[in-house]
Structure formats: C-alpha cells, structure tokens
C-alpha cells in the first residue's frame, strides 16, 4: 500500500501552501458578477443615450397642421394650442389696434378667420403661406386666436414669386 501523506518538511523550510482555489471559491464567482454589473452599466448608458436622442430630436421638430387638417379633427384639437398653416386670403387683411385680422385658406378651400395680437412680420401680405401659433376659441368655432405669425419663405420663394415680396419702400422685388 502506498503512503498518500506528504513527507514532513525539513527543519527551517516554510510549510507547503494550500492548493489553488477551485472555481467554486468566492474569487471564482467575482468574474461573472463583474461581467453582469458591466453589462448592466452599459445597458443603462445605452438607454440614457437613446432617451436623450429621442427627446432632443422630438423637441426640435416643429409640427403644424394645415387649415384642412385642423378643421378635419377640430373636435380632438379643441382649444389646445397648435400651429396652423395656410395661405392668406386676398383682401382679408384688416389692421386692428391689437394686431391684425385675416382669413387663411387651406388647399381644399376651407377657411379660418385669424385674430392676431402683435405685429405681423414685414413680409406678411395676401396670397402667401403663413404659420400662426394659437388656438380656436371653441371646438366648434372657425375663429383662431393667434399671438405669432411666421411667413413661410425661402430664397427660392422670392425667385418664384417676385411680385409677392415687397421691399421696405413698397416696390416689388424683381
């Protein structure tokens, strides 16, 4: 029969070290826990970046309803603040003490009367597309109260419609 015990250590030598730790020891369990924590941190960071992108891009987009769209779903719009786009109907601009009243039309001929408080932009005139910020006076009304008018134009707008845009002297741009 063979002896399985280790021979005694020689005098003056340190005792033998224990065998290396098995995979079931606490040191072996740390590696999967660290990976799990790292994955969790990356998941939270990726979620935060996605949230910030969605919020940032969503708030930078500026939507508006056309006159036709707003009238089609006016019951759901109610009196909430929206941005409304349409073309200023010729001959309807009336300057008031508080601002300007005018009528806007949609592509299908639907119209909305706009009561705007404040000064309209310099390029504001009939037959041009505008966007107004405001709300309907009631869910069944076609009166739109606005506090801001934005003239929709670009460099190509002036080239395509030189008679619609007037200089500060009142002459058409040619």
Please tell me about this protein's structure.
The protein has 174 residues and is an alpha+beta fold. It has 2 domains: 26-61; 65-160, OB fold (Dihydrolipoamide Acetyltransferase, E2P) (Beta Barrel). 29% of the residues lie in helices and 24% in strands. It is built from 4 helices and 7 strands; from the N terminus they run αβααββββββα. It starts with 25 loop residues before the first helix and ends in a 14-residue tail after the last helix. 13% of the residues are buried. The mean pLDDT is 78.
Could you give a short description of this structure?
The chain has 174 residues and is an alpha+beta fold. The chain is 29% helix and 24% strand. The chain has two domains: 26-61; 65-160, OB fold (Dihydrolipoamide Acetyltransferase, E2P).
Reading the helices and strands in chain order gives HEHHEEEEEEH
Question: Which residues sit in consecutive blocks of at least 5 with pLDDT less than 50?
Answer: none
> Which sequence of strands runs across the widest sheet?
2-4-5-7-6
Helical residue percent? 25-40%
CATH topology descriptor of the largest domain: OB fold (Dihydrolipoamide Acetyltransferase, E2P)
Average pLDDT for all residues: 78
Features:
single chain; 174 residues; alpha+beta; OB fold (Dihydrolipoamide Acetyltransferase, E2P); five-stranded mixed beta barrel; 4 helices; 7 strands
Topology, element by element:
Elements: H1 26-60, E1 65-66, H2 67-72, H3 74-77, E2 82-88, E3 94-95, E4 99-105, E5 111-117, E6 129-136, E7 143-151, H4 155-160
Parallel strand pairs: 1-2, 5-7
Antiparallel strand pairs: 2-4, 2-6, 3-4, 4-5, 6-7
């Amino acid at each position: 029969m063979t002896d399985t015990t280790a021979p005694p250590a020689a005098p003056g030598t340190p005792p033998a070290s224990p065998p290396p730790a098995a995979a079931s020891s606490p040191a072996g369990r740390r590696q999967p826990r660290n990976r799990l924590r790292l994955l969790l941190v990356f998941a939270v960071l990726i979620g935060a970046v996605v949230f910030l992108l969605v919020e940032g891009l969503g708030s930078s987009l500026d939507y508006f309803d056309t006159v036709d769209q707003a009238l089609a779903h006016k019951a759901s719009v109610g009196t909430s603040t929206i941005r409304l786009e349409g073309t200023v109907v010729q001959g309807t601009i009336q300057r008031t003490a508080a601002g300007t009243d005018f009528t806007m039309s949609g592509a299908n001929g639907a119209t909305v009367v706009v009561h705007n408080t404040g000064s309209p932009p310099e390029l504001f005139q009939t037959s041009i597309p505008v966007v107004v910020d405001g709300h309907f006076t009631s869910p069944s009304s076609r009166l739109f109260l606005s506090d801001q008018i934005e003239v929709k134009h670009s460099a190509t707008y002036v080239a395509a419609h030189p008679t619609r845009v007037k200089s500060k002297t009142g002459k058409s741009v040619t």
